[in-house]
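Hypothesis: this fold can be encoded by more than one sequence.
Test: take the structure tokens below, design a sequence, compare later.
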């Protein structure tokens, strides 16, 4: 699809160079534009006063420089901030800013909904949306941070709305731009494990960190939770991960949502550890975040059960951590993103 008035936020410096070549007389103009829009965070061409009036006019005619509109911003008691963006065609998307001491993690979205319909996920409950463009992905970061600066205290996780591996090319374009400021090592892609896309990802010259949503130790339960498992079952997924190229010292994160009475028993912990034997992984346990949109059985285990699960996985020789719940009072926790500014109580019944 050809956007008649495309945004440039998805462009790395090199892409900007080739896109804007016909417009500029000197190549340093590209650097001026790059600095102005990313590092100074200027959002209107007429404000980039280092450029001639004529150039600004021509650029403004052909390229958009506006960002998605922030239509809602909710701050949690714990400092987590959820942003609701409206995109140029009216689609909406959410991103979450999570402060962690002197660090910060931005949880950004790759699609404006999700077609995968995982039973524990509110985004899936609301259904499919469209793929975001690389510009729309980068713009979430710019809108939250104001401007880009080289830094080593910011982490980016593609754990917001959508399945990044169903939109891999745009996600790739966004990452190539974002890595001008943020290291590849501080970016994580989370996926249910779309195998053909994982194969493409494995062939990238450089790769972000990988997190895989597993959530059950057998196909029967995984398919019940995640219909996509019927297409890409556990055995094939784990076999693929066994050969996945990792930099030295790096591990794949295995995400496992703990659901009370469903996948949280000591036997499940042992079965999970057995599945992951000989894989270079660490396990991140996520006590389920309940939501009025989800089925009633979708509740987390009590804390001691979570700890017992973690201990059992660790006793089997794996590294296991429990993800802290952040921002749940503003529906910003994992799996709660929906991009509707409506109150949860008015959700239609499932
Ligand atoms: N589609 C990708 C990324 C989006 S979700 C994926 O599935 O990995 C990021 C993480 O939040 C995933 O591990 C997802 O399974 C988890 N999640 C979804 N709903 C949740 C909920 N209600 N409580 C806790 N974690 C949830």
């Amino acid at each position: 699809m050809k956007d008649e008035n495309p945004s440039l936020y998805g462009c790395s410096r090199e892409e900007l160079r080739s896109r804007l070549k016909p417009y500029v007389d000197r190549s340093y103009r590209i650097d001026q534009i790059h600095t102005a829009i990313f590092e100074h965070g200027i959002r209107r061409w007429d404000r980039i006063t280092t450029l001639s009036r004529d150039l600004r006019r021509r650029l403004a005619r052909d390229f958009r420089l506006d960002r998605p509109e922030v239509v809602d911003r909710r701050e949690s008691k714990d400092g987590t901030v959820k942003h609701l963006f409206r995109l140029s065609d009216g689609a909406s998307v959410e991103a979450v800013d999570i402060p962690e001491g002197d660090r910060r993690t931005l949880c950004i979205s790759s699609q404006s909904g999700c077609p995968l319909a995982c039973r524990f996920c509110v985004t899936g409950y609301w259904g499919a949306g469209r793929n975001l463009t690389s510009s729309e992905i980068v713009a979430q970061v710019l809108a939250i941070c104001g401007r880009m600066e080289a830094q080593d205290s910011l982490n980016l996780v593609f754990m917001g709305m959508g399945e990044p591996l169903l939109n891999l090319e745009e996600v790739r374009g966004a990452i190539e731009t974002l890595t001008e400021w943020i290291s590849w090592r501080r970016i994580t892609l989370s996926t249910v494990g779309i195998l053909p896309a994982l194969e493409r990802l494995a062939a990238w010259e450089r790769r972000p960190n990988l997190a895989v949503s597993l959530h059950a130790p057998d196909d029967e339960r995984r398919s019940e939770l995640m219909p996509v498992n019927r297409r890409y079952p556990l055995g094939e997924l784990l076999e693929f991960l066994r050969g996945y190229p990792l930099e030295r010292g790096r591990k794949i994160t295995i995400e496992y949502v703990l659901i009370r009475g469903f996948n949280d028993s000591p036997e499940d912990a042992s079965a999970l550890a057995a599945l992951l034997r000989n894989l270079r992984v660490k396990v991140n346990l996520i006590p389920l975040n309940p939501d009025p949109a989800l089925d009633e059985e979708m509740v987390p285990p009590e804390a001691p059960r979570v700890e017992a699960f973690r201990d059992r996985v660790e006793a089997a020789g794996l590294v296991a951590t429990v993800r802290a719940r952040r921002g749940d009072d503003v529906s910003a926790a994992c799996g709660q993103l929906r991009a509707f500014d409506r109150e949860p109580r008015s959700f239609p019944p499932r």
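The beta strands are 69-75, 81-86, 92-100, 103-107, 154-158, 187-191, 209-213, 252-258, 281-287, 319-322. The radius of gyration is 21 Å.
Hypothesis status: open.
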